[in-house]
Amino acid sequence: MTDHHARTTGSYSYGGSPYDIHTSSLSHPSRQTVKFITAATIGVTLVFLSGLILVGTVIGLIIATPLLVIFSPVLVPAAITLSLIAGGFVFSGGCGVAAIAALSWIYNYVSGNRPAGSDNLDYAKGYITDKAREVKERAKDYGNYAQARAQEATQGTGNYGQARAQEGTQGSY
After folding, report:
1. Does residue 133 lie within any of the structural domains?
2. Structural domain that includes position 156
């Protein structure tokens, strides 16, 4: 029995089971009981503090409500103005950050550092170049086709006009 007590001290065990029946004592509270009492104490204290905060908030609103009603013709436009000013500052700051990010991306792209999304840009650039080349070739082909049709129409109109003139002279005989 002395060997077993040498291996355990308090609630720490150095080889034996912490749930050993022989070492449990009824005079010492268990760990679970201490945890429960601690949690309950903290919980009750926090509930009490939240109640005090709620009471303080209600008293503050009771005192401040007449002042808010009296000064509302001034406070409401002031609040609207301040919110618009703050929104403007936030928007301009966001635009500034976006501009800096865009300029940084462009600098990294131009310097060859391959920023995120540059592969998509290169793909789009190649795709647009290919499509522009196709459109140029189609326009050239269509221009040649239109020129040929115009020449045919001109030659046909000339022959058609000459044929009509010959018919007119033949009909006058």
Report:
1. yes
2. 119-165
d(CA 126, CA 123): 5
Cβ contacts of residue 11 below 8 Å, gap of 6+?
18, 31
Q: Which two tokens stand for residue 118?
A: 């540059």
pLDDT given for residue 64 in this prediction: 92
**pTM for the full predicted model:** 0.39
Rounded mean pLDDT, 121-141: 93
Distance CA 97, CA 94 (A): 5
pLDDT digits (tens, 9 = 90+) for 52-70: 999 999 999 999 999 888 9
| 61 falls within a domain | no
Residue 26 predicted with pLDDT over 60: no
Residues 6+ apart with CB under 8 A from 105: 115, 117
Query: Does residue 137 fall inside a structural domain?
Result: yes
The helix/strand/coil state of 23 is coil
Residue 127 lies in a domain: yes
